[in-house]
Amino acid sequence: MRIQVINPNTSLEMTQSIAESARNVAAKLTEIIAVSPTQGVASIEGHYDEAIASFHLLDLIKQGQAQQVDGHIIACFGDPGLDAARELTDAPVIGIAEAAFHMATLIATKFSIVTTLKRTKIIAEHLLHQYGYTHKCEKIHCIDLPVLDLETNETETYEKLLQMCLFAKQNDGIGAIVLGCGGMSKHVERISQELKIPVIDGVTAAVKLIEALHGLGLRTSKWGDYDYPTQK
Ligand code: 2AL
Question: What does pTM read for this prediction?
Answer without folding.
Answer: 0.98
